[in-house]
Specification:
6-stranded antiparallel sheet, 5-stranded parallel sheet, 30% helix, alpha+beta, globular, 525 residues, disordered N terminus
């Protein structure tokens, strides 16, 4: 039970919060609180500075000036009504006309959490809002609130008489549940969807796979996992799919995906479901399964956000045997990069000034956390190694975390490796995309994507040389460059926050067959 006790005024349905640490004399005075106290605050018209003695009069005055307020809030929840009130007040302050405000409200421009912040302090109109109900429901609500108020006041007195209060653990979300809540709510903001939609390699490759493979798509049932704005669902519908079901766990984005489908006249083909995929049953109807499972599930370093586990769940429960998965192959790669390919070099000289103190601090953090950044192919100074391949048609959950050994060799001359860079490709292979197969790459040699690349900074940079033959000095030093690097990487789901990754990297320099001193670091992503 919360340490802040809530007291409700039943006549106005407003909330007062009392801190139990405040002076007990002040708390005791609550016993004299007048529950029949009248609200003497005046209500301000939406469209003028005129004040009225009641909320109804203020609304009536606004509607006479052309504002369709009652129509705007009809059937809305209390929170939506609050957004509408604050939205209208903000637009009225910007001198928008009633007609313009009505149009913006109709377009749901008010549906942003920033409009939960009151424009007017102690706005009586906000206090008057309630869910739409009839008189019987209203009376029941008031009676329930009165009873709850008496109970809460009694609990407050009990609290003040106690030296300690044991918190009630009921309804406390687990770390996993809280991670999921933050994850899905994050995708309710449009900036991240704008970033993904503007990612031309990403969006164009999915469009090609769905719209230029009629042998696969025409007449098919398509399941779009994590549909977001609905763009892949609409690609599939345009490509000739018979039925398309888009699933997204973010309530807000699912609402707008539904509206996008409606405005593009695709409702006969596309249906949007707001749910976690693990909770979806028979989305195409009893006995029907998906012919195609499409998902843009990849995160930074491929596995960040752990959506691959949901893809596997959907494949095993909702996809027909032998059904297609798009994309169906994912590969991860590693290579060595020079210091200039990291973000540290920025701090060496900033507009001509030495800022290496910040560089050194950034380096400390980069030795703990994998860095997501754009790396140019010109900064890659070693061979590239494939460190993992996932076949989405067969991979199991137990096979997602992995450990891989790989070797990196210098291209030419003598260079110093400061970090190991990771990236991935996903393939829409000819196995399913027989008409037109494509590969989406996040390589530093290709056009940048919103996934960037991920690099792991080495504690001690390693010098490498293709023709090194020195036998003196420490292997990997300038005096005795390594001929190659023998590396081991492990990438697993973080135990404390399951959407994150724990990464371990060991790099051992070799000069011929002679091994130098290995260095091992762990990173979080």
């Amino acid at each position: 039970y919360s340490f802040c006790t809530l007291l409700f005024t039943t006549e106005r349905h407003t909330t007062k919060i009392m801190d139990p640490n405040q002076d007990q004399e002040d708390a005791a005075s609550w016993g004299d609180w007048d529950e029949n106290e009248e609200d003497c605050e005046q209500s301000k018209c939406f469209l003028s500075d005129q004040l009225f003695g009641s909320v109804d009069e203020a609304i009536e005055s606004s509607e006479k000036l052309g504002l369709q307020f009652r129509k705007a809030i009809k059937g809305k929840s209390t929170y939506d009504k609050m957004k509408i009130v604050n939205f209208i007040r903000s637009k009225a302050a910007e001198k928008e006309s009633p007609e313009s405000i009505n149009k913006m409200v109709e377009e749901t421009q008010w549906n942003d959490d920033k409009y939960l912040t009151p424009v007017l302090e102690n706005d009586p109109l906000l206090f008057s809002l309630d869910e739409d109900s009839d008189d019987g429901e209203e009376e029941a609500t008031i009676s329930a609130l009165r009873a709850e108020n008496e109970l809460l006041r009694a609990r407050l007195r009990d609290y003040l008489d106690q030296e300690q209060v044991e918190p009630e653990p009921k309804n406390v979300p687990t770390v996993k549940e809280e991670d999921d809540r933050l994850f899905f709510s994050g995708y309710g903001h449009f900036d991240i969807h704008e970033t993904m939609l503007k990612d031309i390699p990403r969006t164009a490759h999915y469009r090609t796979a769905l719209s230029e493979n009629p042998t696969l798509v025409e007449g098919a049932n398509v399941l779009d996992l994590g549909c977001g704005t609905g763009i892949l669902s609409m690609f599939a519908a345009t490509g000739g799919a018979s039925k398309v079901v888009g699933v997204d766990a973010s309530e807000r984005v699912a609402q707008f995906a539904t509206e996008n489908v409606k405005r593009n006249e695709l409702t006969k083909t596309v249906k949007i479901i707001n749910s976690k995929i693990e909770d979806v049953n028979n989305p195409f109807g009893e006995g029907e399964k998906a012919d195609i499972l499409v998902s843009e599930w990849m995160g930074y370093c491929l596995l960040f956000e752990s959506m691959l586990y949901s893809v596997i769940d959907a494949r095993d429960t909702l996809l027909k045997p032998g059904g297609a998965i798009l994309p169906d192959i994912a590969r991860m790669f590693a290579a060595g990069i020079r210091y200039q390919g990291t973000d540290l070099q920025f701090w060496d000289k900033v507009w001509g000034y030495d800022m290496t103190s910040i560089r050194d601090e950034v380096k400390k953090q980069s030795l703990k956390t994998a860095v997501v950044s754009d790396v140019s192919g010109s900064e890659v100074i070693t061979s590239t190694s494939t460190i993992q391949t996932f076949d989405l048609a067969t991979v199991t959950k137990d096979e997602v975390p992995f450990t891989s050994d790989f070797t990196l060799r210098p291209f030419h001359g003598t260079e110093t490796v400061s970090a190991i860079v990771l990236w991935f490709d996903t393939e829409f292979s000819p196995r399913f995309c027989k008409d037109r197969s494509v590969t989406l790459s996040t390589s530093p040699y290709e056009k940048p994507t919103h996934w960037h690349q991920t690099y792991l900074l080495l504690d001690v940079p390693v010098t490498i040389s293709k023709g090194s033959q020195s036998e003196e000095g420490e292997i990997g030093s300038e005096a005795r460059p390594a001929t190659h690097l023998s590396c081991t990487i492990s990438i697993v789901k973080c135990q404390s926050h399951h959407r994150d990754l724990d990464i371990s990297l060991t790099v051992t320099p070799f000069c011929g067959k002679v091994a130098g001193v290995p260095q091992t670091r762990s990173y979080i992503l």
